[in-house]
C-alpha cells in the first residue's frame, strides 16, 4: 500500500474533509444505525483509522464501547491520538501503527470498520484484506466499509466524473490536480466497480453484502460474518 499521507496532509486532513461534512455526518449516522444492535460493551476495530472520525462518532453514542484503531501512517495516528485525548475517550482506545494484519485476532471484534480505505488497497491484495478482516470478527459480527467505487465502462461514468471533479474542487484541489482526477481514479488508486466489490466480499466469506449509502462515487456496504 503506497504512502499517501505525509505529516502536512495529516494535519490538514480534517480541514479539507470538513467541506464534505454533510456527506460524512450522514454516513456516520447510518453506520450508527447499522450497528445499533451490537452489545453494550462492544469491541470495534477501525482499519485505516486516520484522524479518528469514526471512533469519535461511535464513542460519543456508545459510552461503553472500546476501540482499536490501526493505520500505516504515523502522522495520521499522531493527529488521531490528539483528537481522542481532546474528546476524553483515549482510555477506551488502542492505536496501532500498521495494517489490518497487525491488529489483534483475539479477543475477536463485534464490528470492523473500513471507511474510505479500500480504494487504497491494490486489487491483487483485496482478498487478503477482506480475509484478515473476517478473521478478526466474532461470528455474526459486522463488517462496514465505505470506498470510492465506480464502473469506468458505464455510460454514466463521464457525468459522474464531472460531479467528482466538483467534489475535489470543493476540497481545495488545484486546477492541475482537478484535470487529473480521471487518471488518479484509474491509476493512482485501486477503484473497483460496485459489482466487483460485492464479489470480493462474497469470495472472502461474507454473507449478503448490503449497500446502505451512496454519495456520488462513495459507496458503503455492510455484511455479517456467518
Description:
It contains 9 helices and 7 strands. It has 226 residues and is an alpha/beta fold. A 7-stranded mixed sheet has the order 3-2-1-4-5-7-6, with helices on both faces. Strand 2 (66-71), helix 4 and strand 3 (93-97) form a beta-alpha-beta unit. The longest helix has 14 residues, at 21-34.
In a few lines, what is going on in this structure?
By secondary structure, this protein is α/β, with parallel strands linked by helices. Helix content is 42%, strand content 23%.
Distance between the termini: 28 Å
Structural class: alpha/beta
The ordered string of helix (H) and strand (E) elements is HHEHEHEEHEHHHHEE
- For this structure, the quaternary state is single chain
> Shape, please?
globular
Quick one: biggest sheet? 7 strands, mixed
**How many beta strands in the DSSP annotation?**
7
Unreliable segments of 5+ consecutive residues: none
Order of neighbouring strands in the sheet with most strands: 3-2-1-4-5-7-6
Q: Give Rg in angstroms.
A: 17 Å
Number of helices: 9
Average pLDDT over all residues: 93
- Strand fraction equals 15-25%
Kindly state the percentage of residues in helix: 40-55%
Question: Any key phrases for this structure?
Answer:
single chain; alpha/beta; 7-stranded mixed β-sheet; 23% strand
Amino acid at each position: 500500500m503506497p504512502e499517501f499521507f505525509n505529516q502536512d496532509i495529516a494535519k490538514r486532513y480534517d480541514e479539507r474533509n470538513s467541506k464534505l461534512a454533510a456527506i460524512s455526518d450522514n454516513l456516520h449516522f447510518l453506520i450508527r444505525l447499522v450497528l445499533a444492535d451490537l452489545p453494550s460493551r462492544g469491541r470495534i476495530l477501525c482499519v485505516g483509522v486516520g484522524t479518528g472520525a469514526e471512533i469519535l462518532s461511535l464513542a460519543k453514542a456508545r459510552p461503553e464501547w472500546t476501540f482499536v484503531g490501526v493505520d500505516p501512517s504515523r502522522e495520521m495516528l499522531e493527529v488521531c491520538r490528539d483528537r481522542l485525548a481532546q474528546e476524553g475517550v483515549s482510555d477506551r482506545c488502542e492505536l496501532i501503527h500498521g495494517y489490518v494484519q497487525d491488529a489483534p485476532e483475539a479477543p475477536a471484534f463485534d464490528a470492523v470498520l473500513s471507511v474510505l480505505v479500500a480504494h487504497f488497497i491494490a486489487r491483487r491484495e483485496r482478498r487478503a484484506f477482506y480475509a484478515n478482516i473476517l478473521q478478526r470478527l466474532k461470528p455474526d459480527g459486522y463488517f462496514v466499509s465505505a470506498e470510492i467505487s465506480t464502473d469506468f465502462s458505464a455510460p454514466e461514468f463521464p457525468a459522474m466524473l464531472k460531479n467528482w471533479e466538483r467534489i475535489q474542487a470543493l476540497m481545495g484541489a488545484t486546477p492541475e490536480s482537478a484535470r487529473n482526477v480521471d487518471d488518479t481514479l484509474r491509476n493512482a488508486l485501486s477503484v473497483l466497480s460496485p459489482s466487483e466489490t460485492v464479489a470480493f466480499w462474497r469470495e472472502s466469506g461474507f454473507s449478503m453484502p448490503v449497500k446502505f449509502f451512496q454519495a456520488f462515487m462513495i459507496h458503503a456496504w455492510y455484511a455479517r460474518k456467518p
